[in-house]
Hints:
By secondary structure, the protein is of the alpha/beta class. The chain is 32% helix and 23% strand. It has nine helices and ten strands. It has a seven-stranded mixed beta sheet, sandwiched between helices. The protein has a three-stranded mixed beta sheet with strand order 1-2-3. The longest helix is centred in the middle third of the chain and has 14 residues, at 128-141.
Amino acid sequence: MTHPVAIELLSPLYADQAEALSNELELPLLDEASNRDDYEVLLQVTDSGVQLQATGKKAPGAIRAEFVSGATAHRRKFGGGIGQMIAKAVGLRSGIRPQVLDVTAGLGKDAFVLATLGCEMTLVERSPVIHALLRDGLARAAQDFEVSEIVSRMLLHHANSIEWMQEQATSGERYQVVYVDPMFPHNDKSALVKKEMRVIRPVVGDDTDAEQLLDAALSIAENRVVVKRPRKAPTIGERAPSYQLEGKSSRYDIYTLKKLA
């Protein structure tokens, strides 16, 4: 029987961290007698941070939440500022930097883009494994002088996003913009062959409650809800968005409630 996830220690210097993760996430910590192929993915504790690695002969490379180097750093420097489609979808304009709640935080890439552009971000991630990856990435980034100020604008919560939003709405809490990027149901012809999705999907599955997620977002948003979708995917539920922004592979459905000021 193949199990979803286990913890693997790749550096003896971080044995305490690996044991703490194992206890926190209630996942087995592999030892020398363990067969790593008994698990679909491994949450690995390394010298350079926590990463997620699929098992098997044709498994893609490991992924991590990374804000200091690589593609995220390149986008921070050369991504196009408020001209980016995500910035337009959220409503960024000269002098307008809304407070954004990202309820499908994932590895934090979209939230980091918006934080780079000056938005105060609140992130909610319900998968304990993905939350651990993102928490590690933010902690490492906080130690880097180039991005520490940016990630200081990213407040992370581990919670079921729907329940969390319902509680916030009940207490009267509101966010100017709520950003939703649900995991799209698997399609062999889709872009989900990407390395990141191949590693993440066994951990998080599909967001089968996307409609409830949108309803909860609409109940807590003050100005707008932004839903990211594959370009040709149907909208979520029966409520039509106010308008859409379409790119080459993805699309933003914008539900406008009140004009951003």
